[in-house]
Amino acid sequence: MANESSLALTEAKPSQVATAPAFSFALSPNELVQLMNTYGLKASDVVGLYQVSSALFHPLRSLPPFNTMDAAEANHEKSIDVIRQWPKQLNWVQFNAMINCLLQKWLEDYQAGAALANAFVLARSLTLQTAEAIGTQDLQHADQTVSLKFQSFLMHLLATATHQFDAFQFNYIQHYDLETGLPNQRFLLDILNRYSPVTEAAVAQANDVLASEKIGILVIQLNINFDKTPQLNAISNQIVQAAVDVVEQHLSSDATLFRIGVFEFAIIVENLHFSAQLNLMAAKLAHAFETELPLENVTLILKPIFGGICSLEEPISALSLFDNAKLALHHALVNDSRIEIYDKVISNMHQKAHQLEEAIITALQHNELEMFFQPIVTLPNAENPVERCVSAELLLRWISEEWPSVSPFRLIETIYKKGFGKVFIRWLINSACRHCAELLSNHQRNVLLTINLCTADLLDEDLPVLLSQSIALWEIPAENLVIEITETDILANEEKVSQVLDQIVSLGCRLALDDFGTGYSSMARLRNMPVDLVKIDQSFVRNIATSNQDKEIVVSILKLAHSLGKEVVAEGVEDPACLQLLRMMKCDKIQGYYYSKPLPFEAFATWLAAFEATHST
Question: What is the rounded (10 degree) CA torsion for 431, 435, 437, 440?
Answer without folding.
Answer: -170
